[in-house]
Amino acid sequence: MEPLLKGTNLVKRYGKVTALDHCDFDLYPGEILAVIGDNGAGKSTLIKAISGAVVPDEGEIRLEGRPVRFSSPIEARAAGIETVYQTLAMSPALSIADNMFMGRELRAPGIMGSVFRKLDRPRMEKFAREKLNELGLMTIQNINQAVETLSGGQRQGVAVARAAAFGSKVVILDEPTAALGVKESRRVLELIRDVRARGIPIILISHNMPHVFEVADRIHIHRLGRRLCVIKPGEHSMSDAVAYMTGAKVPDGVVEQA
Amino acid sequence: MTDAKTASSFEEGLKGASEKVAEFHEDKSALKRVQHWLHQTPSAVPLIVLMVALAVFGILAENFFKAGTLTVILQQIAIVGILGCAQTIVILTAGIDLSVGAIAVFSSVLMGQATFRYGVPAELAIAIGLVLGTAMGAVNGLLIAKMKLPPFIATLGTWQILLSANFIFSANETIRSSDIAAQAPALQFWGGSIQPGGVKILYAVFLMIALVAIMAYVLRSTAWGRHVYATGDDPQAAELAGVPTSKVIIQVYALAGFFCAIAGWVMIGRFGSVSPTASTGQLGNIQSITAVVIGGISLFGGRGSIMGMFFGALIVGVFEMGLRLVGTDPQWTFFLIGVLIIFAVAVDQWIRKVAS
């Protein structure tokens, strides 16, 4: 099977620091790929390179076999790659519907839309309500309520729903459960599975090993700016994974370069 | 294996716990409900204050509720109301524009001097003034969005620069009202009026109401309006969500400059003459910020409505007129406006706590 998203030989340097050191990356259709790594291993740079927030110095990214080069998150979004940032990137005072459509608003049909630039509120609200319902966020009653009146889990849910609604190719989730309680984390993990069930592959960045081992199909272990190995959660234990990513243990068949 | 909903072992403890995930707890307390209502309709507070002020002055001053009195109030706030439109969009982006009055006065001087010194036809002179006013606003926007200067400092600088440039360029000359009426009546257009039933209503009043209505529509019902709110609310989040925040900020300050230039044109109509020493140059910023703040628009950006600013300007006008009719010391006006400003900011802080 061909990877849907493939990074080859990616290099990113910040001055004398090499954050990405000839790194490879593969995401296959329909899978949940977890990316784990110690702090400073360069996993956020890798994710930024894929989501368009950083332009790699060298290397190539291919989406469905075609080379792509994103110079901003907006370009990556246009190509169907949606990112849920750790900060969620939502405007607290604006409504759920406004936030879901921020930067890609729908305009009313006819002259009201083309000349007077009127938003198509009913259509945006209907769409937002449908997407939240699809992901089982039924407890949100009023689509026009300000995001800041939602709980942490609900906000995360809205952000995931936004990404799932527009991310036609890939959804990237950066630490989606880091700020959540046990019950809310569970709900977000279910959301992640729901998104995959709809055929969209997911890149999950997380430090939470139980969550990673529970939902991931494959685990990309990042170390010293490159991919150390990819493991399957069924074949390795959590302590193996932690040992690999911290360098305490070297996986079979991998020669670690000094 | 991953399809099995095998919860991690530590989650065993969840068994028997409520299945509800982060549901709403509808708070029944009346105060909470008021807080939520105000959160959604931020212009309600100034509207209530306005109604109370109207009622109180209606009782205290017997000739307050005359059509003549009310139209004079509208006439008095026409310029502040237009400057307030400029200040509103700027403050919604969490900025501030101290140069609004200076741009207005300088634009009016440019319109007047273009006509009288350079012999440009009045209509073209007006267009030049509007374009240059917009350009002055755009400079503010560039300083803030591109050079990342704090809005307060950037516009504190341009305020002084524009006001002094205005004095130097005009050589402190006033163009007399009678000359303008004779040679360039278009400059005084907004001072014209209709008089239904003997009550004089200036065109300037209709212009102000039209601008407020247009901006209310733009801010509420267009994508650009939503982007203005998002930029003020959380610029990083807006940027990541795909809002070109730098562009929005430059556009906002340029549009504010355009509104100020319109206010400058209206000033010629209101005062008759073109004067570089018009008090708007020094006080326009404070008056417009007062209207915005009393109108319940948050100085921290992203919250409030332009209708609130309109009510805020009306409150100031009603206080001035009402207290004059009652016959008190005019200083009470400023005393009460000061109290209102503090009240409005306190209410804003309280409404913001709705999230917690």
Automatic annotation (TrEMBL), chain A:
The keyword Repeat does not apply. PANTHER family: CARBOHYDRATE TRANSPORT ATP-BINDING PROTEIN MG119-RELATED, SUGAR ABC TRANSPORTER ATP-BINDING PROTEIN. Keywords: ATP-binding, Nucleotide-binding. GO terms for molecular function: ATP binding; ATP hydrolysis activity. This is Sugar ABC transporter ATP-binding protein. Pfam families: ABC_tran. It comes from the Bacteria. The keyword Nucleotide-binding applies. Residues 5-249 form the ABC transporter domain.
From TrEMBL, chain B:
This is ABC transporter permease. GO terms for molecular function: transmembrane transporter activity. The keyword Transmembrane applies. It comes from the Bacteria. The keyword Transmembrane helix applies. One of its GO terms (cellular component) is plasma membrane. Its main location: membrane. InterPro entries: ABC_transp_permease. It is a multi-pass membrane protein. Keywords: Cell membrane, Membrane, Transmembrane, Transmembrane helix. It is found in: Cell membrane. The lineage of its organism: Bacteria, Pseudomonadati, Pseudomonadota, Alphaproteobacteria, Rhodobacterales. The chain crosses the membrane at residues 44-65, 77-104, 124-145, 152-169, 201-219, 252-271, 283-301, 332-351.
